[in-house]
Design a protein that fits this description.
heterodimer; A: alpha+beta; ten-stranded mixed sheet; 28 helices; 22 strands; flat; B: alpha+beta; Arc Repressor Mutant, subunit A; three-stranded antiparallel sheet
């Protein structure tokens, strides 16, 4: 460790200043002279003798300074100054290099920042590492639990410091805020204090306690302008008025990343603000549980301790099938929810693509630097001849790369910040994510920059210093130093073209996948207009909107400009989904079934443009009191009745078939994309809304003329039926489906950008290498022409070189592209198993680009004047 | 012929450490004097060269220094050996004796 101490003392400038040193040495000489005088010399002779004895004061001083310096730092400073001077001499190169690096590094930083926020960042709470999620797994599916089960568990468990429950059912406030119900231990467990006022505790969560609410910082800012007078005001939530008692600290968004909360209320308020008594009812499974492990308790121990409790109180929660479930205690340091699961793959993929682009940029820069090295052969030769060490020059050249990279990364940070916000918006990763630079990112940036410097700086620097001094100084026969360098340049171009092929192929695949998603057979016409009618889950609203079914149906069908209209509950694209069990006399409901129940008015299938595969649709004849009927989709009909006809058979909406609530199948409708462009069709049960009364959640219209006019007319008509009814979006299905293509659009857009960039880089790379080759071989080409080689021959020679490069690249890149196609298959839509058309097309495109890039250098070579060429050098 | 020899390479540090170990706190002049006395005129010491050595030793943490007054009442820097310096001295001294013994055996064998 001695060297460390030496370094520190040198850095700290320990030791004497020059004046102090002079003083010390003067004292020494004086003592020496005094000694000689004592021995009998004259004062003058004594001083002369002392000076002689103390020879070389200047030399000593020099040595002394050498001791105090840190040679590496001094040299580095000198190298940096020299590098800056060199770069100022060629501003074009410096500008291009810094800009490319800034863009490449910026893209990587942007994607990394989103990746970090989505996948790595812990909740901004006290000791997030101690938080765990307590899950009830049925098979491998986590189930929600009921409040009574949570209450028993929280009271009896011995392995957690505290435990709380959260619901992800939003409570709309009149001003558009969304609050969530959490149990009393929420803030205590997370260790979140209030920034003003107080947070609520278990005391506020007792039945009969005064209703209270805690606001988030952003909601407080948005709705109350950060006024402290917000404390004590009330929030009207359906049947309850909750008093605002505090504001959570800035940056705290809740326990679910990507879903920032506006306010929190204690769970005991539930019966007053949402339908049903879930506090005492075991029939509702609606809660997730998070706790903090006691110190020294491992997750496995907690599972073992909680399992008997779950079994003891299993009757307090609903599990649909059997009782084969288990308890899992999973880390919740990053919160709960599915944000990471949804974005993990696309983000890693984007990160990979951005990395490839960066590698391409670096190899392009390496080529540029090689070109510069060729120009500087003479300079480097002179320096070597004057006695500079090869290592010294190498370090100098690397410093130049390092300076470029440092400038690039300085610019990359602001670019990355903007890019990250844009990317987060494009990907709609949700609200409340903290897209800030952390130490993770700093390390990432540093590593990326160093890797870049090595990638683009190291090899050219080695090549540049491998110079034969003699020939470099003569500056003739530039070919001698170049052979190895040319091989290296060729290797770089092959790497570039191969990577481009992979990137372009990826871009093409994602673009085509998006096209496939948009142009698939949706099973229905996509220009029917959907009027979304939001439904609040209160008994009043359900009753009110239940009564509007027929008035709205009749009013809509009388609208001019509308060919047909129907109303529905829980229909396609509705944010509400109602699932039921489905069984036949032969088949009980199965766990894997996902069965939607859709209540429709007459005319629904015609208006939606859903063709009937068999039987008839639902008509006005299917009224209340008539025989109960149902229309199945093809998926359900096939699963329940196999190849036989489903028409005339009976199903019941229960897990086990019961004849008393049986419904007869009157029709089979085609499978349609119900709520997203790529989700499996599942089972759909269409029942007459007359026979299964339900609140209106949507109106569908088939406009006769201009859709915009029909939409406006529909809005006015709804208002005329009930002026207070809220109307959501009015749009056609094509537009509604677009919303579900977020990830696909994101990947297509970014992969497309990267693909174009790769194509451009590839063009530049080929052009650069060929130009250099032609310039280097001017002499040789001149001789060839002089000896009678035709222009066509020269063309052939240059193009032959390109063809070789291309063949090698397409072989390497083609393998990469095929591998990428296979790896991406899970994220793509609508491709056959062995469809390699797109990799092939990408190869053709890239090949054409490479030949286009070689045209100018080839022409230059063929037009060389042999006399000029031979006179050169 | 002058039979005074130059300071063998790498031994000056050891001499300085040994001097400070034996005599305690000393200034540069005192250290140089002592070395010359011990060498009994057999050593050609340019007294200036002990200053870089002192700095080197101080940076390594083997000696410390502070300002004080010399015999003739001039300001002088006084050096003291540290615990780390003593440890280093012991290690180096042993190393040195082993080398000397080895050289002696070798030369005896040759003659």
């Amino acid at each position: 460790m001695t060297w460390l101490r030496v370094l520190f003392s040198r850095l700290a400038g320990r030791g004497r200043t020059p004046a102090e040193l002079a003083e010390e040495m003067a004292a020494h000489r004086a003592s020496l002279a005094a000694e000689y005088e004592r021995r009998g010399m004259t004062a003058e002779a004594a001083h002369a003798e002392a000076r002689r004895q103390f020879a070389g004061a200047t030399q000593v001083r020099e040595l002394y300074y050498e001791q105090r310096r840190i040679p590496l730092l001094d040299n580095l400073a000198r190298d940096i100054v020299y590098a800056l001077r060199q770069l100022r001499a060629s501003p074009g190169f410096a500008f291009a290099a810094v800009l490319t690096l800034a863009l490449g590094l910026g893209a990587n930083l942007a994607i990394y920042r989103v990746l970090d926020a989505v996948l790595f960042r812990e909740l901004p709470v006290r000791d997030p590492g101690g938080l765990v999620q307590i899950q009830l797994l049925e098979g491998s599916d986590p189930q929600r639990v009921s409040y009574p089960l949570f209450r028993e568990l929280a009271a009896r468990q011995q392995v957690l410091d505290s435990l709380f429950a959260v619901s992800d059912v939003g409570l709309p406030a009149p001003d558009g805020g969304r609050g969530f119900m959490v149990s009393g231990a929420y803030f205590r467990t997370l260790g979140i204090p209030a920034q003003i006022g107080r947070v609520f505790t278990e005391e506020d969560d007792r039945p009969g306690a005064q209703p209270v609410a805690v606001l988030s910082d952003s909601y407080w800012t948005r709705e109350y302008a950060r006024s402290t007078s917000a404390i004590g005001r009330t929030l009207q939530l359906n049947g309850a008025r909750a008093a605002i008692i505090g504001v959570a600290p800035a940056g705290f968004f809740g326990e679910t990343p990507g879903a920032a909360r506006d306010f929190w209320v204690p769970m005991s308020l539930q019966p007053a603000i949402t339908p049903g008594d879930r506090i005492n009812g075991a029939a509702y499974s609606w809660l997730s549980m998070i706790g903090r492990l006691r110190p020294g308790v491992a997750a496995r121990q907690a599972e073992a301790a909680l399992d008997p409790l779950f079994r003891e109180f299993a009757h307090l929660t609903v599990t649909r099938f059997g009782r084969d479930y288990r308890v899992r205690v999973a880390p919740a340091n990053r919160g709960i929810g599915d944000l990471d699961r949804r974005f993990e793959r696309p983000l890693w993929l984007l990160m990979g693509m951005a990395g490839l682009v960066l590698v391409m940029l670096c190899s392009n820069l390496a080529n540029l630097l090689l070109g510069r090295a060729a120009v500087r052969t003479h300079e480097i030769g002179v320096r070597l001849a004057l006695g500079a060490g090869r290592w010294r020059i190498l370090r100098q050249l690397l410093t130049e790369s390092l300076v470029l990279c440092a400038a690039g990364i300085a610019l990359a940070f602001p670019l990355g910040s903007r890019g990250a916000s844009a990317l987060a918006a494009l990907a709609s990763v949700g609200t409340g994510l903290r897209l800030e630079a952390g130490w993770h990112e700093a390390i990432f940036a540093l590593a990326a920059a160093l890797a870049c410097t090595c990638m683009f700086g190291l090899a050219p620097a080695f090549a540049a210093t491998r110079v034969d001094v003699h020939s470099a100084l003569q500056s003739q026969h530039r070919t001698t130093a170049g052979a190895r360098r040319r091989h290296f340049a060729n290797a770089l171009v092959i790497a570039q073209i191969s990577l481009s092929l992979v990137l372009i192929c990826g871009a093409a695949l994602f673009a085509r996948s998006l096209w496939n998603l948009r142009h698939q057979d949706f099973g229905m016409s996509r220009d029917a207009l959907l009027v979304d009618i939001p439904l609040e889950l209160t008994p009043q609203a359900i009753a009110h909107q239940g009564a509007l079914v027929w008035p709205l149906y009749e009013r809509m069908n009388l609208l001019p400009g509308v060919r047909s209209a129907a109303v529905s509950a829980f229909g396609p694209m509705s944010s509400l989904l109602r699932t039921v069990g489905i069984s036949t006399p032969e088949r009980a409901a199965q766990r894997t079934d996902v069965t939607r129940l859709v209540c429709v008015s007459p005319g629904f299938f015609e208006t939606m443009g859903i063709p009937m595969a068999a039987g008839r649709g639902i008509t006005a004849e299917d009224r209340a009191g008539a025989a109960p009927v149902v229309v199945l989709n093809q998926g359900a009909a096939r699963a329940l009745f196999g190849a036989g006809s489903a028409i005339g058979r009976f199903v019941s909406q229960k897990d086990r078939y019961a004849a008393r609530d049986a419904m007869q199948v009157i029709g089979v409708a085609r499978d349609v994309r119900f709520s997203s462009a790529r989700e499996p069709f599942g089972f759909v049960l269409y029942v007459p809304i007359a026979q299964s009364p339900a609140p209106v959640t949507g109106i569908v219209l088939r406009p006769a003329g201009n859709p915009a006019q029909a939409a406006a007319a529909a809005r006015a008509a709804v208002k005329s039926v009930d002026p207070n009814l809220k109307i959501g979006a009015i749009r056609n299905y094509a537009e509604a489906f677009e919303g579900g293509l977020g990830n696909d659009k994101l990947l297509a857009a970014i992969a497309g950008t990267f693909g174009l960039l790769a194509l451009a880089l590839c063009y530049i790379g080929v052009y650069g290498v060929l130009s250099y080759a032609v310039e280097r071989r001017t002499h040789e080409i001149g001789i060839r022409i002089a000896l009678g080689a035709g222009r066509a021959g020269i063309y052939r020679m240059v193009l032959g070189e390109v063809s070789l490069l291309m063949a090698a690249s397409l072989l390497v890149g083609g393998a990469g592209a095929v591998a990428a196609t296979r790896a991406l298959r899970g994220m793509l839509f609508g491709f056959a198993a062995a469809d390699y058309t797109l990799p092939l097309l990408a190869a053709v495109l890239l090949g054409s680009a490479a030949f286009a890039a070689s045209y100018l250098p080839a022409r230059r070579a063929s037009r060389l004047d042999p006399v000029d060429a031979l006179r050169q050098d | 012929m002058d039979n005074r020899s130059e300071v063998p390479y790498g031994t000056l540090d050891l001499m300085v450490l040994k001097t400070l170990d034996t005599l305690g706190t000393l200034h540069g002049y005192g250290i140089a004097r002592r070395i010359e006395q011990v060498a009994e005129g057999a050593l050609e010491l340019n007294q200036g060269t002990i200053y870089p050595a002192l700095l080197r030793l101080e940076q390594k943490g083997w000696i410390t220094s502070e300002w004080g007054a010399s015999d003739n009442n001039r300001r002088a820097r006084f050096y003291t050996i540290t615990r780390a310096g003593r440890k280093q001295l012991a290690a180096e001294a042993e190393n040195w004796s082993r080398t000397v013994a080895m050289m002696a055996r070798m030369l005896e064998g040759e003659s």
